[in-house]
Every structure is written in C-alpha cells, then in structure tokens.
Specification:
The protein is of the alpha/beta class. 46% of the residues lie in helices and 7% in strands. It folds into four domains: 136 residues, 3-Layer(aba) Sandwich (Rossmann fold), CATH 3.40.50; 70 residues, Helicase, Ruva Protein, domain 3 (Orthogonal Bundle), CATH 1.10.8.60; 90 residues, Up-down Bundle (Zinc Finger, Delta Prime, domain 3); 90 residues, post-AAA+ oligomerization domain-like (Orthogonal Bundle), CATH 1.10.3710. It has a five-stranded parallel β-sheet with strand order 2-3-4-1-5. Strands 6-7 form a two-stranded parallel ribbon.
Length: 454
C-alpha cells in the first residue's frame, strides 16, 4: 500500500493546506497581479506605512478571495485577522479594530482584516468598520460573492477599491491539481493521477479551486486503499457523485442563469434554453420559479404569434404543482422546447406599454357618453348609453362606433408583426378597424373571414 502520509494531515483539508504562501503561487487572477497593481503593492509594503488602500474582492466561490488576503498578509509581514460575517458581530469588529490600533501605535505593525462574506453583514455592522478603514487602523480585505453595489454600504464602498475576480480557467485548475499531487503540503506524490481523471476533476470543478482540490483529495483516499495508488476517472466518478454546480439561489449566479435562460428562449436557441433549464434543475432551483418565468416568457415573447404557448405554459406550471419533481422536469422541458421553437412576437406586450405610457402622461380623457353605464337610477337622464350600438346587431358583429376617448381617437397601440399567427391577425385587424371607423374594408378581404379565428 502506498505511503499515505500525504493523504492524511490531521483534519486539515487539502484545499486549506495548499493555499499559496505568496502571491507568486496564486493560480489565475493575473489581471489583478500585474507589477505595480494595488494587490502587489499591498503585499510588498512590508512596513505597512504607504497608506495601503482597503479592497473588496468580488467573485464566484473558489476563485481565491481568501487565498489572496492571506498571501497579502504573509508577504507584507502584516498581522492577519480573519472574521466571517456569518458568525462575527459588531463587538468582534470593534475589538479587532481596537487591537489593530494598539498594534500599530505600540509596535508599528499594521493589521489586515479579512472579512469573509461581507454581504451578510447588516448596515450597522458594516458601519462599524468605517472608523478603522477611514483612519487606516486596519487594511480591510473583504470578500463577497454578491454584487457589492447592492450588498455593501456606500460609505464603505467609496473608501475601498473594488476588484473583480474571474472564474478560474481549466489551465489554472490544472496547475493547482498538479501542484497538490506533488507538493509536500499536499499529497506528496502518494498517488498517481491519470490524465482522464485529471480532466474529470477539472470538468467537475467548474472553475472552483476548492471544489477541484476536495474532489482530488476524496479520489486519492479511495485510490490509496487499493492495490495500486492510481486515481482513475472511474475513481473520481465514485468519489464525486455529481457536479455540484456553482449556483447560489440568492446570489449573482441565480440572476445570470435565469437571464441567460430567458434570452435563449426569446432568441429561439432551443439547445441553450435546455442547457440553462438543466443547470437550474440540477442546482435545486424552485420549479415554481422556473414555471413562472416560462409563463411570463409565453406572454411577453411569443404572445399572439402563437396564443397556444401561454396555455401550454400554464398547463406545465399546474402539472409541476400536481406531480412535483423530479418528474416535473419533463413538463418544464416540453414547455421550454415549445416556447423556444415557437414564432415570436412582443406586440401585445409593447401595446400595453404604450397604453400605460399614455395613461401615465395624462392622456386619458372621459369615457365616451354612449359607453357609460346606464343601469343605475338617473343615468339615462344624464345621457349615459345614448347612441350606443349593440355590436351583435351589426354586420359581422362589428358596429361602426368610437370606443376610445375623444383625445385618443385614431391611436394605434397594437401593431402585430408578421410572425406565426399574427400574420393572420394583422389583416383581420385592418378589416376590424375599417368597420369600426366606417371605412371600406381592404379589397383582398373576404367578408365572412372578418371575425374568424383562422
């Protein structure tokens, strides 16, 4: 059996043991680590006297936010304090700031305060950081997976430099994996990693370094228990049941994926639509949320080009409620395929927007007197209903009559496009408008088609 000394280092996970000791060991994020960049300058200011700016690191999980903070502290010789917004409160923050102030005044050592998940801090908790940041008592390195513009208070944001981390590339992950296999801090060469297994780990990691190293460690433990300490693709598959998608239902990834899903259906790319649907389902997204988006898509982006789309979307939503998951995914898939391949029109949606714009602008007018309610006592004495023509008494059940307020007569809100069912709606609408306005119907029209549904 292989030497397992590199596999079991107490209870410290491989991902923690392999954190870089300096910025030179950091994989990826090269756009933030160019010579003279704020992070490099922060790491090389060993005296801590250059007025280093606080930074907010924004990026997906596993891209190196904690790693960068620790590497900065180690490289610069600063005191490093780590807090998590999940467990820390205002008292903890004030204690760190007080200690940092004393350390600077008494020993000339500045403090890096790494605050993980700063978006979980309330406004009051974030405000408690301001004196320490503003006076330079601490160099704040805050990490967040959510957009700081929405999750960090403006005063703190304005006093910090916002740096965006990118998802790690496959090459970056490959470097990390190879290093972890050989490095004395890692597996110390206790196992051999096949190329297919390496590729499988990279694929499953989805740009997340922590996930890659966790999968490698789990696979290495299994491999070391066998006759040959070789990590194969099959061992990786057994160690990692499924790719845990980098998808936070409360964070940016949630909004990015649903945005891509909506735009893919609207853009008639059925394969992309199914891809994003699968990502949401596999990440455990609420199927009711997906179903609601599908109904909205049917009305907003397909509309009258295929009126059946909304009926099918509503049926899928009701079906998902009745049968639940995982079978409900089949109904969602059918609805998505139908919507993505259906003809598209947002004419109904735009028509309502135009009408709402007129109402908001005050272009409303009085209801025409012949359309007003004439049923209550005294209404007829006021002239309500006088001159109203009952539609079914007119040819084709369309009476020549004005329905819009006088100020809006002649306004056109709904303008059908030439896609799908609206190819037929357009000419019919022209015939209807001609009858309403007392104009001759278009010459190509067939009179008995005026109100037909075909």
């Amino acid at each position: 059996m292989a030497d397992q000394q590199g596999l079991f280092s107490g209870s410290t996970p491989l991902a923690v043991r392999m954190r870089p000791a300096s910025l030179d060991e950091v994989a990826g994020q090269r756009h933030l680590l160019t010579p003279g960049s704020p992070l490099v300058a922060l790491a090389r200011d060993a005296s801590g006297t250059s007025g280093a700016v606080s930074v907010i690191l924004w990026g997906p999980p596993g891209t190196g936010k904690t790693t960068l903070a620790q590497a900065i502290a180690r490289s610069s010789g600063r005191r490093f304090v780590e807090l998590s917004a999940v467990t820390a409160g205002v008292k903890d923050v004030r204690q760190v700031i007080d200690e940092a102030r004393s350390s600077r005044d008494l020993y000339g050592v500045s403090t890096v305060l790494f605050l993980d998940e700063i978006h979980r801090f309330s406004k009051a908790q974030q405000d408690a950081l301001l004196p320490g940041v503003e006076n330079g008592w601490v160099v704040l390195v805050a990490a967040t997976t959510e957009n700081p513009s929405f999750s960090v208070v403006a005063p703190l944001l304005s006093r910090s430099l916002l740096l965006t981390l990118e998802q790690l590339s496959d090459d970056d992950l490959g470097v990390l994996i190879d290093r972890a296999v050989a490095d004395p801090r890692g597996l110390k060469g206790a196992v051999e990693l096949e190329d297919e297994a390496r590729s499988a780990i990279i694929r499953l990691a989805s740009g997340d370094a922590r996930r890659a190293l966790t999968a490698l460690e789990a696979a290495a433990v299994i491999a070391s228990a066998g006759p040959e300490p070789v990590v194969t693709a099959e061992i990786v598959a057994s160690a990692v049941d499924r790719a845990l998608l980098r998808y936070d239902r409360q964070g940016d990834e949630h909004y990015d994926v649903i945005s891509a899903f909506i735009k893919s259906v609207r853009g008639s790319d059925v394969d992309a639509s199914l891809h994003y649907l699968a990502r949401m389902i596999e990440a455990g997204e609420d199927p009711r949320f997906i179903a609601r988006r599908i109904m909205i898509l049917a009305a907003e982006d397909i509309g009258m080009a295929d009126p059946q789309a909304l009926t099918l979307a509503v049926s899928a939503a009701e079906g998902v409620q009745l049968i639940g998951m995982p079978e409900g995914r089949i109904l969602l898939a059918e609805a998505v395929v139908y919507l993505a391949t259906a003809p598209k029109s947002n004419a109904s949606y735009l028509a309502l927007d135009r009408a709402i714009a007129d109402v908001r602008a005050g272009r409303i007018g009085r209801v025409p007197i012949h359309l007003r309610d004439a049923h209550y006592p005294g209404a007829k004495r006021l002239g309500h209903g006088k001159g109203y023509r009952y539609a079914h008494d007119a040819p084709y059940s369309v009476a020549e009559q004005t329905y819009l307020p006088d100020e809006l007569v002649g306004t056109r809100y709904y303008e059908p496009v030439g896609n799908g069912y609206e190819r037929e709606v357009g000419p019919r609408l022209e015939r209807l408008r001609a009858l309403l306005e007392g104009r001759p119907m278009p010459q190509k029209a067939e009179p008995d088609d005026t109100t037909s549904g075909s």
